[in-house]
Amino acid sequence: MLDLSMLEAAILVIFPTLVAFAAASDFLTMTIPNRVSLLLVGCFVVMAAAVGMPLEQVGWHLLAGALVLTVTFGMFAAGWMGGGDAKVASAIALWIGFNINLLYFAALTSAYGLLVIFAMIAFRQMPYLPAPLARQEWALRFHDYRTGIPYGIAIAAGALHVYPMTAWFAPLAN
Hints:
Distance between the termini: 17 Å
Number of strands: 0
Helix content: over 70%
Oligomer: single chain
Shape: elongated
Number of helices: 9
């Protein structure tokens, strides 16, 4: 096991940094690299071992990831969400686990998703972009109604909202 201060630092840094990177990447490029989801999964395995997570609890976390992957893959197949969004949401669910926090994550992601959608609609209603924004590739992409919605922002917001409520913070409470 890691020493407590290293464990605390890992809990406070790894997951939030990867999730924030996923949101920033989706915001700027409309893609979430596969390496982010893979890093989330790999870091989960390392952190679960570091905190001494019981095998049964690991199984529940795996179930959460599999459940979210099944649902989000269906949404991807229907054209309702991007593949990167589906993968990162599933990797996040792995960290959250199969408990009430997973439901909170889904509900909050939906609520934040509405905010992102409304913001995108409002942005796209602008007849023209101000000169500084008109030179930014991401702003031009956002302004084009034919492009999708960077839902990774909502997924990240839901994840970061729920994360402090998860079992990962139990060692920090002492």
